[in-house]
Amino acid sequence: MASFKSASQESAAKRIGSFLAKLVKHQIFIPIAALLILVIFNLIADPSFFAISLDQNSLGNPVFSGYLITILDNASELVILAIGMTLVTAASGGQDISVGSAIAISGSVMLRVLCGTNSRPEVLQAPIIVAFLVCCVVAMLFGAFNGTLVAIFKIQPMVATLILFTAGRSVAAWINKNELPIISDASFGYYGNFIPGIPIPTPIFIAVACMILIALVLKFTNLGLYTQSVGINANSSRLNGIDPALIKFITFVILGLCVAVAGFIKVSRFSTINYSVIAKDIEMDAILAVALGGNALNGGKFNMGASILGAYVIQFLTTTLYKFNVVSSALPAYKAVVVIILVVLSAPIVRDKITETWKKLAPVKIAKEAS
Amino acid sequence: MLLQKSAKERNPLMNRHSISDTNILLYITFAVFVVMYAAAIIFLGSGFLKPQTFFSILNENAALIILSCGMSIVMISGGIDISVGAVTALVCMSCAVNLDFNGGSVLTAILLALFVGLMFGLVQGFLVAYLEVQPFIVTLAGMFFAKGMTTIVNSTQFNVVHEGFQKLKSTRINIPGMGSYNKLGIVVPAYVEIGVIVAIITVVVLFMVLRWTKLGRNFYAVGGNSQSANMLGINVKRTKFLAHILCGLLAGIGGFVYFLHVGSGSPSHASGAEMNAIASSIIGGTMLTGGVGNIIGTFFGVLSLSTIKNIVSSLGLDEAWWTNITVAAMICLFLLIQSVVLSRKNKNKL
Amino acid sequence: KAAPEASKDATAASVEPAAELIKVGIINNDPNESGYRTANDKDMKATFTKESGYEASFAYSLKNDEQIAAAQKFIQDEVDYLLISAAGTSGWDSVLKDAQAAGIRVILFDRTIDADESLYEASIVSDMALEGKTAVDWLASQNLETYNVIHIQGVMGSSAQIGRTGALDEMVAANDKWKLVTQQTAEWNAETAQQIVQAVIDSGKEFNVIYAENDDMAKGAVAALDKANISHGVGKDVIVIGFDCNKWALEELLAGNWNYDGQCNPFQAAYIDTIIKDLEKGTAPAKKVVIMQEKGFDASTITQEDVDKYGI
Amino acid sequence: MQDGAILEMRGISKYFPGVRALHDVDFTLHEGEIHALMGENGAGKSTLIKVLTGVYSKDAGQICIKGSSGSVSIRSPEDAQKIGISTVYQEITLCPNLTVAENMYIGRTKGSLTHWKKINTEAGKLLDSLGIPASPTMQLSSCSIAVQQMVAIARAVDMECKVLILDEPTSSLDDQEVSKLFRLMLDLKAKGVGIIFVTHFLDQVYEVCDRITVLRDGKLVGEYVIGDLPKVQLVSKMLGKELDDLSGIQKNADEIYVGRTEVPVFEAIQLKSSANIKPFDFAIYRGEVNGFTGLLGSGRSECVRAIFGADKTTGGTIRIDGKKARISKPLDAMKHGISYLPEDRKRDGIVGDLSVRENIILALQVMKGFFRPFSRAQAEAFADEYIKLLDIKTASSDTPIKSLSGGNQQKVILARWLLSNPVYLILDEPTRGIDIGTKVEIQKLVLKLAAEGKSITFISSEIDEMYRTCSRLIVMRDRRVVGELRGEDLTQNKIMATIAGGD
Ligand SMILES: Nc1ncnc2c1ncn2[C@@H]1O[C@H](COP(=O)(O)OP(=O)(O)OP(=O)(O)O)[C@@H](O)[C@H]1O
Ligand SMILES: Nc1ncnc2c1ncn2[C@@H]1O[C@H](COP(=O)(O)OP(=O)(O)OP(=O)(O)O)[C@@H](O)[C@H]1O
Ligand SMILES: [Mg+2]
Ligand SMILES: [Mg+2]
After folding, report:
1. How far apart are CA D289 and CA B287, in angstroms?
2. Measured distance CA(D158)–CA(D140) in Å, rounded
3. How far apart are CA D328 and CA B101, in angstroms?
4. Which of A256, A308, C47, D275 measures 20 to 30 Å from D93, CA to CA?
């Protein structure tokens, strides 16, 4: 009897072991594990981290607040950029480092259209939707510029986008002649903050909409197959009728669109812009999000969900560090340590080792329990 | 019988000396640099005619040259290191604190610089080579870490007053026959700083290492195709490890040269230097995809990049935004020339 | 050559300004950094024109090393004066020595640097420490029971950050009633400032003062307060302090949403102009270091005139 | 260790996720012998070699080498080289960015410096002596795949070694090169080197080998002295069943195609491409199988690439079903019902990280359109159908194609093009690296497709194969079409003569 029991337990343990091994091997495991680690850490350190309360804001509208809401809210732009960055990375095997600058440009364009010639208009000079569309077109044009350099002229993405990275913020300043446009119309602020009566920050909705959109696109078109195929082997792809240059170009244009949306949220948050610091260093975070999602930065296969989770991990981490009041200037050092721990844990070699030890340990544990 | 034609007859192409990708990119860089400088002399005149303008470029960029060399090496071996700028700042700050507050000497400062660089190289190299984590992420974390550590070491900026160091810092090597008259009619000799000598030695040594040593060739092989390199009997992991160590060490040396040039510690030192180093390497013909590159090219890459900036500041642009836009446009032009020439060459090959 | 003669024959030059333009190389931070910088750059541009006898070249960068490289270039281009608003305080002495050797005179504006006084003719700067002290003194005069301060710093190591932080740090160290709820750098960035304040709000910690080292960051902080329905401004829960006197910031003050704004005067060009004219005449500047006149504005006393006059 | 044994492997096992690549395999290599390692695609030959040379770590087993007591641990190809094992892997494993000479010497020279002059002259000598048409200073990536293969061989045989491993070295070589290689192998054998030789060409095995080890499904079938094992038995040992009769393959009567007047399915007039071939005329009719033949590098591949639009066409006209058409990129050709199976599978064929399923449906999917992806179930069904049809050995249709054995990768690519149901199918070396059983299957398949009315162009380095399947051969020399053979001209002798350019 006893021996039977232990045998069945052993096989159960094996099953659990192999399930875990499979899970651990799966790409999305990395950001999930990272999130879990952060959640557990916060739970132990201070459970109130997860409290969400319904308050009224200064306009008297009900709003949810709490760290979780803050994380979801603040991660929105990053999530949107991570979507585009994942596609660019997959198809071209490189990264776009100009997204921060491009956000400055698209934000500047948006405000320029809304403000007209006067930098501090009483009323909006154009409907927001028009401004947004113009801003989309401009951002996609800049995306197309990067895309052309990469796809047609075969310049490596990081260098090709270095051009816009260098010029972008100056272009943004030039668009508004260095004026500081400020929008006083409250409705413009809805998109970066709250829509009256809805207690959840609007950027969350926009981010979710983008996620749904990309999920639909990936499901109902071959974008995923084409980008991956081009990223893995452009030669083969061409011989199968895919135009690698076109696909690379398209991913950059899509990233341009993502930039426009992110830029819209950013300028809406404060109804104004600061050319030199808006979306500062966001390119690094966006790339980090892709990498934390376990995607290879030299192109090929990708997992969009993992990238998006990666973006949330970054914001979660940042907010956690703020919460624990880490000495501001030393903050990057802590971030670095966490990132390193995460990527090391997710390194295939390390994960293989972990599964191995787990497999070895599991029967021992069961045996102990049985005896 | 007829099937026994000699190999040469059968393949008409084989006798043609083919220029490798590495070399053609180098030629392009060199040519564009010369043309650009000549154009600057012709159209912008005075300043560019003076030898010291060129030497100033060297003085200002000695550290960047060294950092870019390290960057080129990791890039050739198929990786990237974006921590070098932040490591430079950390090196400066550590050395400054060591000299002024901890009673260090120039020697201890140099050792400290090398140590810091080496440690970054070791750890990053280990993670990249042996745990196979993507180099971009490892070194991004390295950059964050170095940034944080710099302010942990000391959060404000200050000039170093240490005497021995000041002496070293103000040592100038005059170049005979290249001086020029100043406004007051006195001859100002042309000079380079010690850092330039270090940089040139680095360039020459590394050029030889990459060209003639086994290790150097292994960098190319691993960058070209690491799987193949492994099967050719090259220890890929060790090679990558060494590339990062070398890059780290060069970041240490470059950091000290930077320190010697500015003579101060500050958290904002060398910010963005990694991007300049990457851009210089690429302008000099190193490919981010690995396996292609040349140190001499990198050297000219740095010079080209800063000449571009110099030209822009001499253009007398009236609005601030033109500065960056023009710099970007010129980089763009440069890359386009490179790209077009390269694709022409590849077309001819077929 | 012509240049040495011109400086020897200084009187001629000043009598007939159109004949011999004075070459100035102006090294500034990028004007898109902030409203302050934009105003400062405009002021310089408006002053150093051909009409007033100058041939000005500009170089912009937020990076110290790029600025130094630009300075070297101006030296080789043989400008007569080098006007510098340094991005960082350190690392300038060697290039200043080169300028001296080349017979080029240096005038610092807006920002001091850490170098021997003999290396420059004059410096026209804001006293950031004083700005900080004025603000902190104003805050102390509010006689709050306790001071729980959220301190949002600028880019670490910039002279504005050092000066404005120093005053607050001193007060906190010296006084038990003053506490820092958090002290973080937002690097002049409104978004980051918002995140920092948001984190404090989410944590439920008590605070009643926001000390932001510039207007942008104060704006970010206030956005976070608005979201959480924490009142701020005159007679409200939280005191908001900013710096730079952007016009929109002073309007916030006028509306009673903020409490205090420290001025940072960007208009140094006129001073520099006089000094150069003096130097050309052969007279040394009256004062080597000119400290800009600066005020602090209290929301309860500010007027529309102040906004129009001092807003930038 | 056995007497005279130079290498002994005992109880070797190697598992990949979902695949038992090797299970308890023994292998013994004697001094001065050529030992054939045989088996179907996916039998585990390459895996055994990679385990031996330290590319993969083994899950169980021991390796003993003469000269070192006890079992040795080989953890990397570097270790293997040090012990005296020199290897040519199945997939060419050289560095494309380095020169030919450097590829021959890197990783195996002593000292820490590279003597360029020395390696260039030595490489030059070696290349000349082996008749390899490449100069030492050429960048490897500009060499054809055959030349690369020969460079890899040159590198391996030049090494001072006790054991030489050749994993399908002959798959892209022509007869001349092969016989040169065999002479080399015999030389080395005389010097006491043990050679492991993997190939799917049975004739070659019987020409040079002394002993055969057969693997099937990762397990050892047995070790035989060559004289004891006739071909037929060897094949049945490999396949685990009798081979279908080769004589069953009968090409269509060719006479009917001579001087036919109907409109060709595809016709090219003075077609020229950026790949530097002389303009050529070409036509293919419904239900016809024809082929390009010629020496290595004579431009066969370039011709078909031009037809498919894989290289940029720079002149000439194309008619499809008599109507003028423009093919400027592969997609145009695909839309006209043309399919092309490229010769360099690794570079132009597979999309390594994608699954077998995605690789199979890729071409059809592209033709169907960007906005109309196949449903998962549909893709699954297609994949399963062809995995079964071509007997592709894969753990599942989700496995990334790069972890399949070489021959099975080839089958996947074939499946891809069959699935797209072409009118005109171009096969450039479709049987390269495919085992004898499947080879026969493929030849049959080609003829079956032709019988169904499809047109096929077939290129193979094995004249035999061409001879058996094609009813018309276009002969190429020096990038020029020099003749066309059909009907009774289609004899081995005539073909050789035309290729060589003799009249
Ligand atoms: N890296 C890998 N990951 C997973 N499976 C693998 C890997 N390499 C080989 N396999 C599997 O191991 C089995 C044996 O493959 P191997 O390459 O040794 O075959 P082979 O005998 O060389 O065949 P071929 O004649 O086609 O080259 C195959 O089923 C293959 O799918
Ligand atoms: N850029 C190039 N530089 C040098 N040689 C080249 C270049 N391109 C092609 N060749 C040579 O041209 C020859 C034509 O190659 P191709 O692939 O057409 O030969 P093939 O007749 O198909 O023979 P196989 O497929 O058996 O190699 C090759 O031998 C190759 O060496
Ligand atoms: Mg094989
Ligand atoms: Mg061919």
Report:
1. 45
2. 18
3. 71
4. D275
State how far residue B51 is from chain C, nearest Cα, in angstroms.
Answer: 9
* Architecture of the domain delimited by D250-337+424-503: 3-Layer(aba) Sandwich (3.40)
Q: CATH number of the domain at A307, please.
A: 1.10.3470
The single-letter DSSP state of residue D403 is G
pLDDT of residue D494 exceeding 90:
no
Taking alpha carbons only, the member of C60, C66, C71, C59 closest to residue C99 is: C71
CATH number, domain of B237, equals 1.10.3470
Q: pLDDT averaged over chain D? A: 87
B271-297 per-position pLDDT tens digit: 889 999 998 998 888 888 888 888 999
Q: CB distance from A18 to chain B under 8 Å? A: no
d(CA B228, CA D91): 9
Give yes or no for residue C11 having a pLDDT over 50.
no
Ligand 1 near D405 CB (within 6 A) = yes
Q: The domain containing residue B158 runs over which residues?
A: 11-42+50-349
Distance CA D259, CA A347 (A): 65
Entry pTM: 0.89
Q: Which listed CATH number (3.30.450.190, 3.30.2010.10, 3.90.1200.10, 3.40.50.300) goes with D5-229? A: 3.40.50.300
D213 three-state secondary structure: strand
Asked, for residue A11, whether it belongs to a domain, the answer is no
* Residues in chain C closer than 8 A to B47 (CB atoms): 73, 76-78
Do C151 and C174 meet the contact criterion of CB atoms below 8 Å apart? no
Question: Ligand 2: does its nearest atom lie under 6 Å from the Cβ of D146?
Answer: yes
Of A155, A165, A291, the CB nearest to B136: A291
Are D490 and D254 in contact by the 8 Å Cβ rule? The answer is yes
Share of chain D above pLDDT 90, in %: 42
In angstroms, the CA B238 to CA B197 distance is 30
pLDDT of B22 reads 64
CA D445, chain centre distance (Å)? 18
pLDDT digits (tens, 9 = 90+) for A109-153: 999 999 988 888 888 889 999 999 999 999 999 999 999 999 999
pLDDT of B310 over the 80 cut: yes
User: Across chain A, what does the average pLDDT equal?
Assistant: 88
Q: Is A236 on the interface with D (CB under 8 A)?
A: yes
Phi, psi of C107 (to 5 degrees): -125, 130
The answer to whether residue A317 is domain-embedded is yes
**Nearest of B139, B136, B137, B148 to residue B89 by alpha carbon:** B148
3-state per-residue secondary structure call for chain C: CHHHHHHHCHHHHHHCCCCCCEEEEEEECCHHHCHHHHHHHHHHHHHCCCCCCEEEEEEECCCHHHHHHHHHHHHHCCCCEEEECCCCCCCCHHHHHHHHHCCCEEEEEECCCCCCHHHCCEEEECCHHHHHHHHHHHHHCCCCCCEEEEEEECCCCCHHHHHHHHHHHHHHHHCCCEEEEEEEECCCCHHHHHHHHHHHHHHCCCCCEEEECCHHHHHHHHHHHHHCCCCECCCCCEEEEEECCCHHHHHHHHCCCCCEEECCCCCCHHHHHHHHHHHHHCCCCCCCEEECCCCEEECCCCCHHHHHHHCC
By the 8 A CB rule, do D80 and D44 touch?
no
How many structural domains comprise chain B? 1
Rounded CA separation C94/B261 (Å): 8
**Half-sphere exposure at residue B331, Cβ-oriented, CA atoms within 13 angstroms:** 34
Site of tokens 């281009």: C77
CA distances, A319 to each of A266, B225, C198, D407 (Å): 18, 41, 9, 53
Q: Retrieve residue B195's tokens.
A: 């850092």
CB-closest option in D81, D102, D176 to B233: D81
